[in-house]
Design a protein that fits this description.
The protein is of the alpha/beta class. It has one domain: 3-Layer(aba) Sandwich (Rossmann fold). The protein has a 3-stranded parallel beta sheet. Strands 1-2 form a two-stranded parallel ribbon. Helix 3 links the parallel strand 4 and strand 5. The chain is globular, with a radius of gyration of 13 Å. The termini are far apart.
């Protein structure tokens, strides 16, 4: 991933399970300064995140819901620019 920093958080994976070049985010509260969040799993731990707090940690509050399980209008009201697979850009 040249030119970008990729960080990953998954409470169900051990830190040594991530591919080389990925910054492991051990605690979601440590996820500071990223430009985009991508939801790739629908674990309860992911769905119950405090999206209002997380948006403040982001450098660019952009989120892509790859599972189509998040409420985009709710995320937008919390300051996110939110997109999801299979949904039109103007939701």
């Amino acid at each position: 991933a040249k030119g970008i920093v990729v960080g990953a958080w998954d409470p169900h994976l051990d830190d040594n399970m991530y591919p080389e070049g990925v910054e492991v985010i051990s605690e979601i509260s440590d996820a500071h300064g990223y430009d985009m969040a991508v939801l790739v799993t629908a674990h309860n731990a992911c769905l119950s995140l405090d999206w209002s707090a997380l948006v403040k940690q982001m450098r660019t509050p952009l989120i892509y819901d790859g599972r189509r399980v998040l409420n985009l209008d709710d995320l937008t009201s919390k300051g996110w620019k939110a997109y999801a697979v299979g949904r039109p850009v103007n939701h």
